Amino acid sequence: MVQKYQSPVRIYKYPFELVMAAYEKRFPTCPQIPVFLGSEVVFESRSADGAVHVVERSCRLRVEAPRLLRKMAGVEHVVFVQRNVLNWKERTLHIDAHNETFASRVVVLENCSYTVHPENEEWTCFEQSASLDIRSFFGFESALEKIAMKQYTANVKRGKEVIEHYLNELISQGISHIPRWTPAPVLEEDARSQVGLGDPSSLEVHGPRSTQGPAEEMVGIEGDKLDADYIERCLGHLTPMQESCLIQLRHWLQETHKGKIPKDQHILRFLRARDFHLDKAREMLCQSLSWRKQHQVDLLLQTWQPPALLEEFYAGGWHYQDIDGRPLYILRLGHMDTKGLMKAVGEEALLQHVLSVNEEGQKRCEGNTRQFGRPISSWTCLVDLEGLNMRHLWRPGVKALLRMIEVVEDHYPETLGRLLIVRAPRVFPVLWTLISPFINENTRQKFLIYSGSNYPGGLVDYLDRDVIPDFLGGECLCNVPEGGLVPKSLYLMEEDQEHAEQLHEWRETYQPASVLCGAPHEVAVEILEGESVITWDFDILRGDVVFSLCYAKQAPQPGPREPGARASGQLMDKGGALGADYSPVEAPLICREGESIQGSHVTRWPGIYLLQWQVHGPPGNVVEDVLTALHSPGPRCKLLYYYEVLASEDFRGSMSSLESCTSRFSQLSATTSSSSSSQSHSSSLVSR
Known about the structure:
Blueprint: E1 3-6, E2 10-12, H1 16-24, E3 36-46, E4 52-62, H2 67-73, E5 77-87, E6 92-99, E7 106-117, E8 120-134, H3 141-172, H4 189-193, H5 228-235, H6 240-256, H7 264-273, H8 278-295, H9 300-303, H10 308-313, E9 316-321, E10 327-331, H11 338-345, H12 347-372, E11 379-384, H13 395-411, E12 416-422, H14 428-435, H15 441-444, E13 447-450, H16 497-507, E14 511-515, E15 521-527, E16 533-542, E17 545-552, E18 567-569, E19 582-591, E20 596-602, E21 607-615, H17 622-631, E22 637-646, H18 648-659, E23 666-667, E24 682-687
Parallel strand pairs: 10-11, 11-12, 12-13
Antiparallel strand pairs: 1-8, 2-8, 3-4, 4-5, 5-6, 6-7, 7-8, 9-10, 13-23, 14-22, 15-18, 15-21, 16-20, 16-22, 17-19, 17-21, 20-24
Helix pairs in contact: 1-3, 6-7, 7-8, 11-12, 14-18
GO cellular component, one term: cytoplasm
């Protein structure tokens, strides 16, 4: 594979002639570049008028590689041939270089140019590109490629520093101006042609003068190029290879993409999301651009008007910025009725709203970059979980959340700078265990949690005191909506076509069950490891039921099955004795018709656990109940249910994260091997 490098446009705020004088000081040796062992001129020519000067040099570079590799190659240095074409009339220097050593195995090509800045003739631009093609190298092709690229990028940075060093040296000697080339008179042509660039008699000595532009603002480069000062000021510090990836991807888009080219900040996010792997970033960005075009996302901020219900009950909004200048978004998730919002406005409206928040976030980052004079490409999200409970585990809501996470990860990568979680309750590890596998590892590392009760507490490390919201112990009035329960009267009617399709999708998540008098419905769940978590979510469609969770000391019939597999119907032996054959681990819960129940249980032992629903009513004779059930025209109760088992290791990791951050913010782990508790925890909640 051919590795390529393309530099941004680097600008020296000095005239071309002075930069050329500094450049010539690099030869024949340059102590500032230790790998450069020396050079000798092998060819030199000048045009008749002296305007064009061509020099070819043989340059020796020390090989910085492991001793074994140098021994196998049989060399301690490599030879490059460099050809310089200096045009004083056009004020350009073009440099071509290639390797002479191992030319049949490795091909290194480099092109550099010094030119006059297109909008300020007192400044000089420098560009550099290179390619590396390792065809074969004794089986060490991959190692050689890494060594060569690392050494090359280090020398790229060093090269600019060397030019600036010699410029400062010239100025310290009183040489700050060199006259431009002019055609020589015929009689003096021969004499003039012998005067070299390094001849002090050709330099006019003047007192020091400023070569800076009239203002700090950069003069622009042509629209298809990036200059290094712009990158540093607006995009942040990038390594030479990162700069090269940005320029190459940007150039590829200009050549192939039809329509508006994304902003540099946007392109850079996709490169960072793929660790600056150019092909992977290109693929991800192209898919996102197609998605934006298909859904007209570029127009979203102009066209999207959130429903009034969302503006009232969606508990999220922008609130100043964090201590680093990032825009701050506050989400009071614990106060938000996610189920009510989805039933009132639908999942698509919620997704549109989330997309508009991300679009607004990018816009605010650009504004803060201008306001604070430094690159700001991401925002901070403060998530308040006070009030989070089992109703937030409503499965269609969790699925919608996972879908939104997927969309944001795919199309808004590297926009989240930091996510601060505060006031996390005991139920939070269950939710985190459900969603964390779907969050990119780079993003997950930005999640910080603080479960202490002393506020503002650790928030002062991330927010200025004067912007900490009042509900977290600060003095700043926060205008983010407080959320609350969405009235059922605002729910969409099932007759609505779009909502009917959504309801159908939601119901496909659940299993139907009928409960008869004297014939409860039971589901057996096999747990292989203690401290696993059983979660459940069910809706009562008809009748009233009593729900309970039991631990069976012996596996009920029917026979063996795969771990986690479902066995249902009436499984508990009527002759089983409470306390001897099975024991309840959840207190019986009476569930009324129309209610939605969400809950979880942290198991204490491995074995068989039974989820049980039975008809609620006064105790009666078992035989009579069964006979009544057999002659009934239909079931007494109907329900839809869903359950899931969360792995012990994952849940313990989430619990450990929660319990280790009571005094300060700490990173939220996905898993850990340490156990946090030997006791079981359980909870159930009735939602609407």
